[in-house]
Every structure is written in structure tokens, then in C-alpha cells.
Amino acid sequence: MSFDNLPLHDAVLKTIVVDWGSAEIILSVSAFVIKGEAAAPYLLGFSSVTMFEGSRFNEWGASNSILDAKALGTEFIIQMQSGDVIKIMAASYAFQSGSL
Asked: Domain range holding 87?
């Protein structure tokens, strides 16, 4: 599934783990993968990470829910419902069921 089509809208961001040594980032989320069912724990992992940025100004109000996610080449952009943005440049990503 392409990054732009992952079921991340309204997913709740729990944690972000940066493994500097292995150049990996893992986002732990509760995502609404199956319509009509409760959110389930998923991991969104990035490998061969070369850049990571994340703001937490809550300019639209406090929220840990994802509004939108898109990819522009190797740059992955996650827009939070708070107005904050997470940007990650990585060689690849994986989205799988599970939790940290």
C-alpha cells in the first residue's frame, strides 16, 4: 500500500522512537484500519533515516491525532490535527500490526 493511502487519518500517535545508531524511527499509533471497528495498535517504521523534524507547538489546539500523511519522494510528511508537522527522510517505510 502506498504511504499516501495508509489508514492514518484520525490515528492516535502514541510514541516516536528514534534509534540513532541504526538510523531507524518507529511511530507507535492506534489506527482505524478496519472501518467500523475500534482503533488497533500499529507500528509505522522508517529505515535508513537521514532527516527527522517534528514540531509540537499545538497551534490549532492540543491533539495527538493524525490529520493527513503523504510522501514526496523519500520525504514522509505527517500533519497532526494540532497543526504540527513531522517530517522524515528515509529510504523506506513499513506499516504493520503491533505495539512497542
From this structure: 3-97
pLDDT at 86 over 90: yes
Given pLDDT bands bounded at 50, 70 and 90, which one contains residue 1? Answer: confident
Tell me the C-alpha distance between 15 and 80, whole Å: 13
The residue with cell 517505510 is 93
Give which of 44, 42, 50 is closest to 73, Cα–Cα: 50
Domain count, the chain: 1
For the residues 14-38, what does the mean pLDDT come to?
A: 96
Q: Phi first, then psi: what are they for 3, rounded to 5°?
A: -55, -40
The sign of the CA dihedral 17, 66, 42, 30 is positive
Q: How far apart are CA 63 and CA 81, in angstroms?
A: 6
